[in-house]
Amino acid sequence: MANTLTKPQLLGRGLLSQNPIFKLALSMCPAVGMSTTVMTGLMLGCAVLFVQVFSSLTIALFKRQIHPRIRIPTYTLVIATWVTVIDLVLAAVFPAAYAQMGIFIKLIVAFAIITMRLETFACKESVPDSFVDAVGMGFGFMFGMVVIGFVRELLGSGTILGYDVLGFKPFMFFILPCAGFFVVGLMMAFFNWIEQKYRERMANKS
Amino acid sequence: MNRAALKDIISIVVRLTVTCLLAGAVMGATFVLTHEAKERNEQARDERVLYAILGYGDNRPQNMALHTVYRYVLAREDASSIGYVVPVGDGAQSVVMEVDLDGHFVQHFELLADSARLRNDGERDRAVIAALNAGMHAQGESTIQARYADKFIIATQNGRRNAYILDGKYPGFKTFIRVKMALDEKFSLMGFEVLEHEEDPGLGAEITQPWFRNQFAGKSYEQIKKLQVTRSPVPDPWMDVLSGKITGSEAQTIRQQHADDDIYALTGATISSRSVLQGNQAMIRKFVTRMEILDRVLKEQHIETLF
C-alpha cells in the first residue's frame, strides 16, 4: 500500500490535523501527568520524538521480517529497546538533563501513540515516509505537551519556564492532575473550533 | 495439527527468539558502552552535593579528609547485633566493631581491606563476612550473617572532626524522599539536599526549594528535637534571607531574630513539609545515638581512628 501524501503533508498532519493529543486523543495519561510545566512537557516531548523516530525506522526497515501474528509483541520489544538505549545514553552523556527527565523516559514504553504509528504507518510504508511521519508525530506530541504545559504553568504557578511572570499564583487547581483533563478538553475544543472556521472559510471561497 | 499451522508456530518462535536476542544485544552493548560513564556521573554528582551541603562551592578545602563508616546488621542464631566497619591506621586497615542492641561492646574483628576496596559493595560484603567468620571458627561457633544497612561519612579538617554526612530515606506524601544531610561536630544541622522524591510538582515538590531547606540550617540538636511545622505565613524579611535576597550583616540580625522559629510549611503541602521535618528528626536522632555508642566503644577499647 503506497502512501499518497507528500512529505510536507505527512509532517504537517502530525503537527495539526492529526495531532496525537488534540486530534487522536492518544497518550493522554502522560499528557495529563507530565504537563505541569513547559519544561517537563518539552523534555518528555523530546524523549518521545527520539523513541518514535528510531522505532518507526526500525519497523519500516524490518517490516518484511515481522510475522503478522506477533506484530504487537515485536513493536513493544523494539520500543522497549530504544527506550532503554536512550535512557542509558542520556544518563551517561547528559547527566544534568537526565536528572530531570529520567523518570519520564521509562514511561514511554507504554505510550499508545508510538505503537499506533508503528501499526498504522511504519509497518506498511517506505523508510523515508516513516521517518517523516515519525518526526511529524513526535513534534506534534511535543507541541501538544508544551501548549498544555504553558497553560498549566502560567495559571497554576504564575511562571513560564521557571521565570516568575505574573508574580502570583492565579489558580493552584491547574497544577493538580485532574486539571490536566480540563486543559486538554478545552484545547481540543479550541483546535476543533479553529478547524471548523478554517473549513467554512475554504468552503466560502470555492 | 496440519503442517501449515506447525510451520507457522515454528516461524513465530524463531522470529520472536531472534528479535529478543537482537534487542538484548543492542541493550547489552549500550550498557557496556555507557555504564562506566554513568557511574562516574553519579559519583561526581554525589561528591558535588556532599561539598555543597558542607557549604563549599567549587574551591574545596585542602586539608579535608572524608572517612566512611559502614553499618552492618549481624545475625547469629540466637541474637542480632550491629557491626560498624571503621577505618583505622593510615586507612589501609579497618576494624569491625560489634555492638549489641543495647549499645554494649561485644568484640572486634580485624579487616584487611583498604578504603578503596571497601567502596565496592560486593567486595566489602565479602571481606566483612570473611573477617567475622574467621574469628568465629576459631571459637568453634556457628557462622554469622552480615547484611549491609547504611553508611555515614565523618569529615575531618587537619585531623579534627568537623562534620558528619548522612544519607537517608523517609516516607513523603506519596513515596520515599531520599536526602543527604550534613551535621557539624556538635550535631547541629548544617544543611540537607533532596536527592530523589516524587511529590506533586508545584506543591510537595517545593521541598527542594532552597528557602524551605534553609529553614533547617543552623538548628542545634536540642532545637531540632523540639521543632514543629507551623502553617502561619513566612514573615517577609525572613523569607528574603532564606531565599538569599538579603545577605551580609543585615541577614545575620534577621537570622538571629528567627533562630527559634518553627519550620514554616509550604503552601498547600503541609503533609510534605511535615514529612521532611519528621524524617530529618528521626534520621538525626538515630544517627546521634549510634555515633555516641560508636565513640564510647572506640574509646573503651582504645582503638585509634583517623577521626
Please give a quick description of this structure:
The complex is a heterodimer of chains A (206) and B (307). Chain A has 206 residues and is mainly α. Chain A contains 8 helices and 2 strands.
List the helices and strands and how they pair.
The complex is a heterodimer of chains A (206) and B (307).
Chain A: H1 7-15, H2 28-33, H3 38-61, H4 71-93, H5 95-105, H6 112-122, H7 127-157, E1 159-160, E2 163-164, H8 177-205
Antiparallel strand pairs in A: 1-2
Helix pairs in contact in A: 1-7, 3-4, 3-5, 3-6, 3-7, 4-5, 4-6, 6-7
Chain B: H1 3-53, E1 64-75, E2 80-88, E3 93-100, E4 105-111, H2 115-119, H3 121-138, E5 145-157, E6 160-171, E7 176-184, E8 189-196, H4 210-214, H5 221-226, E9 229-230, H6 236-242, H7 248-257, E10 263-264, H8 270-300
Parallel strand pairs in B: 9-10
Antiparallel strand pairs in B: 1-2, 1-5, 2-3, 3-4, 5-6, 6-7, 7-8
Question: Which features would summarize this protein structure in a list?
Answer:
heterodimer, A: 206 residues, mainly alpha, 8 helices, 2 strands, 2% strand, B: 307 residues, alpha+beta, 3 domains, two-stranded parallel sheet, 27% strand, globular
Protein architecture, described:
- The complex is a heterodimer of chains A (206) and B (307).
- Chain A is mainly α and 206 residues long.
- Chain A is built from eight helices and two strands.
- Chain A has one domain.
- A two-stranded antiparallel ribbon of chain A has the order 1-2.
- In chain A, a hairpin with a 2-residue loop joins β1 and β2.
- The mean pLDDT of chain A is 84.
- Chain B is globular.
- In chain B, 43% of the residues lie in helices and 27% in strands.
- Chain B has three domains: 53 residues; 95 residues, no CATH class; 130 residues, no CATH class.
- Chain B contains eight helices and ten strands.
- Chain B starts with a helix and ends in a 7-residue tail after the last helix.
- Chain B has 307 residues and is α+β, with helices and mostly antiparallel strands.
- Classes of the chains: A mainly alpha (206), B alpha+beta (307).
- The interface between A and B is medium-sized, with 29 and 27 residues.
